[in-house]
Amino acid sequence: MASVDRIRKITVVGAGTMGHGIAEVAAIAGYEVWLADISEDILRNALKRIRWSLDKLYEKGQLREHPDKIMERIKTVVSIDKNGNYTEDFARVLSETNFMIEAIPEKLELKQQLFRFADEKAPDHAILATNTSSLPITEIAAATKRPERVVGMHFFNPPPLMPLVEVIKGEKTSDETVRVTVELAKRFGKQPVVVNKDVPGFIVNRILARVLNEACHMVARGEASVVEVDSALKYKLGLPMGAFELADYSGIDVFYYVFQAMAQRGFRAHPCPLFKEKFEKGELGVKTGKGFYEYPVPGKYQRPNIPKEAGEKVDPLLILAPGINEAAYLLREGIATRDDIDKAVKLGLGYPKGILEYADEFGIDKVVEALEKLKQKTGWEEYEPDPLLKQMVQDGRLGVKTGKGFYEYGAVEQRQKKTLLIRIEPPIAWIVLNRPSKLNAISPEMLRELGETLDELEEDERIRVVVLTGSGRAFSAGADVTAFMGISPVKAMMYSRRFQEILFKLEYYTKPVIAALNGYTLGGGLELAMAADFRIASETAMLGQPEINLGFIPGAGGTQRLPRLIGRSRAKELIYTGDMIPANEAAKLGLVDRVVPPERLEQEVRQLALKLAEKPPLAVMAAKYAIQIGMETNIWTGMALESSLFGLLFSTDDVVEGVTAFLEKRKPKFKGR
């Protein structure tokens, strides 16, 4: 029986970028390593690069041993002589190896030739692994008499830094070989994922190909610019790089070749023409000084200027949906598990969340709608929603909003009050103003229920963010004027004070509050929205303070909060005229933070809410108080408050968790303690 404990000597064939990095990783892990390539010059250069990398890691305190000790474990051998034949020295090295990792150029004939030779020379128990990113393991294994001991071991660049390794099973690869390879990857300090079927692109490249291709098609169709797409991906989804920024950084030629190799082996897709155009022009990205962006000189990366506001109108779901569809296929076919798919995306692509986690956040129904929209637009079959996604919609497993999707969440609770609907969707609570027949007019009873609900949710430790919205076609068209009929001036003042007290409670609430403006947001409705931390509006929303038209003025803070948000003169104009303005104009004034199509309102709000919910609750609360109170006082008092809150936070468990997670290079889990 094969055992990882039998592995003492590892041979890495190919000393290029990937090969010398893999050799370095193996040597750091304590293995004796032979690094093979076709010339002494290549090998000398590889050793210099390994030494440079080890010195850097040592300076940062990331090595247990001195680089000299690690370098002693790496030996080199020339693999091919001047006549193009494998050398006797290389044959001897292979005869003593326990595990070979091939990292030569992505040409099937070359790899098959190497594996045929290694099969003849290596011991029977030796495992032969390939670092290919696009070629089938099965076809490489066909050159040997031991296909059960041939496996894919796909590292990511640069191997010393990237934690992911895809372990790919060929048609005849044994479970034992996979088990040993997974264990070896762990001993290398890596996090392996298993690809159970030999499909083109494995996990990461299949999903990445869908996302990059769709981003490219969106630009090719004239629906958005390169910068707009990249802005949406970076700032709305939190990806480390935009699609085109990543293509430039990694090399447009790399993506072009990988996509071609996958397509030739059955990956169904219509390649975006822009990649081919760039490839044929030799505009390959950073390496040539120009790709989708321009760089100072060839080989020198400089982060492109991608403004946050540029991507406001781009729906990132339309770009991500084909990647989610691909992930659903991988899961349904048993090619990879849910956890391995999401791990691969997070570790291999640097996504802050797994692709299936994103699907749950968007809503599986919304993912299916996006795919159907793309299919209707193009007529291409690759957009057909995967049967797994359709079944999930049919079963009501829509993700976070129903408490179950690819993952299970806290049970969604719904409570009905006379004027409000409360939906508990941990870590989010939705408060829905629920008088649709009266455009959610704010009555004394609604104010009382709103105050009670805010108190209840503030005590609920499951809730990190509160969202306010309205049912029907209005957020709220204002205060219920029928409640004012016949009341005395004193009673009117008391009502105004009670309304103001609720909005003060909201403005200084200990949890972030988002107002989702789904329609008319007028009078008291706008005053309510202005007390929230953020306002995200549907394109159909209309905003205004029309009280002047009824003979009175705003009474719940409109004369105070509106000028603070948009300036004195514009506030006066809105209040004096009583005019309504559309959401887009409100955004230009700074009255709302973001405007989205109505079908995307809930999606955008949920994404922001979930992003806020991941942050340390006590620090968010402190930041909110420092800003809110600081805006109402002088800078000296504000700075003193900031210093006090800054110091106070150092007594919390969340600070310990945040610093520890940073040092351990993991995502922190804040508990609000």
UniProtKB/TrEMBL annotation:
One of its GO terms (biological process) is fatty acid beta-oxidation. It is found in: Peroxisome. The keyword Cytoplasm does not apply. Transmembrane segments: none annotated. Keywords: Fatty acid metabolism, Isomerase, Lipid metabolism, Lyase, Multifunctional enzyme, NAD, Oxidoreductase, Peroxisome. Residues 201-295, 319-409 form the 3-hydroxyacyl-CoA dehydrogenase C-terminal domain. Pathway: Lipid metabolism; fatty acid beta-oxidation. The keyword Isomerase applies. One of its GO terms (molecular function) is NAD+ binding. SUPFAM superfamilies: 6-phosphogluconate dehydrogenase C-terminal domain-like, ClpP/crotonase, NAD(P)-binding Rossmann-fold domains. Pfam families: 3HCDH, 3HCDH_N, ECH_1. Monomer. This is Putative 3-hydroxyacyl-CoA dehydrogenase. It comes from Pyrodictium delaneyi.
